[in-house]
């Protein structure tokens, strides 16, 4: 019998089939354990993006979770996102398996603006761990926050006297605008010092940057189409802004280097970072670019968040006169003899604390926290989460979930007095406005101190009314789409002075 030699095409195709079999058998992909993820329907190319069109992302994701479950996978463009919408899921990702999920994915805007993601919020690994330590020990810890007491007193006092001037002529105050100016001034002076020449220029530029950076990057959803960000001008525009910011920050650092004399004045945040850089005791040395990235974080994380929360609190109170009266009664009864409020008075206002908690429950400034990326393949609630998966936690939906909150959509600060002993410190996983675990907000004390002081002074010194012709039912409570969940329409209120300030306030 003659042996037939196979032809070349037959040889090639046999070889290919063999290759496929070998790949299947020895695939490096982890074996799938547990159930498949529920996945909303997909369209070619865009994946599930159509489910998000026309709605705010956290609203759309809550609606999808109601249909598909507390853990679901969405393909957004070319990127898979796993969305968690239960407290058990949040607990697993943010706490139980924190070490695996305390990483951020890459983002075009963060890479361009924050010096290759070398800020606190978007860096990773050993470098991030060190920045986080610097934050806790030096930049945003209780001691440093306390050292800015006179800065807050001055800036909040200035706002109160502007409001008082408006009250004298019955003029409405645009709360959103004024509160953003307040938090910007506090963060800029805490970072740059009180006498720095660059403040105004920096504030104008960073406002533009934050607006732009919260826009849509095609490259983040379609990594193979990063060129689109160049073609649309998105990357170019961001680079232009970055250059402007960089020049201002360079000048500021030079100014600091020239005037650092170890004098009496409190260290500002740039002083602290320069000192740590020069001392040279850091495990991972930091550069001037790293310092600049950290300063940018203070603005991105610390201004709108605080201002928006105060504006939401005032909006909710104005819609519920009895709640407003109760909050005013608390501060007025406690402070009427003294006639003004200092930071040390604030902890006694327990109802006011409930107002703040209730505001953050219903209006967390970052409704989906910041995205996480898993390092190793692991299992969460029975689902296999492959290494490299991107995760989002819908804390906005957790805060409004009737499984966890009675009368979930109502603003009721008294729920925190009636046995609902929940805190936002990262242990109650249905209430996570600051996140939880090792990537929890680094500026909580800084933010809350300004927030509670300003709100208590608003309630103590002024009565508030809607402008002429506006009724409670006209107030639009919808949110805008942006870096943080702010009001779509700024709140305008007419103040009338109830308790004048003594000159020292
Ligand atoms: C009402 C005020 C604030 C709220 C509700 C808030 C909320 C948050 C949230 C939800 C995160 C992400 C947590 C996560 O991914 O798990 C975060 C991160 C962060 N926040 Fe805040 N924030 C506030 C104020 C501030 C202030 C005043 C600063 C600084 C001056 C600040 C600095 C930061 C930083 C640096 C991070 C990144 C932490 C990291 O990735 O390690 N925040 N914040």
From TrEMBL:
Required cofactor(s): heme
Molecular functions (GO terms): heme binding; iron ion binding; monooxygenase activity; oxidoreductase activity, acting on paired donors, with incorporation or reduction of molecular oxygen
Stored Pfam families: p450 (PF00067)
Keyword Oxidoreductase: yes
Source superkingdom: Eukaryota
Annotated residues for binding of heme: 441
Span of the signal peptide: 1-27
Keywords: Heme, Iron, Metal-binding, Monooxygenase, Oxidoreductase, Signal
Family, as annotated: Belongs to the cytochrome P450 family.
Protein name: p450 mono-oxygenase
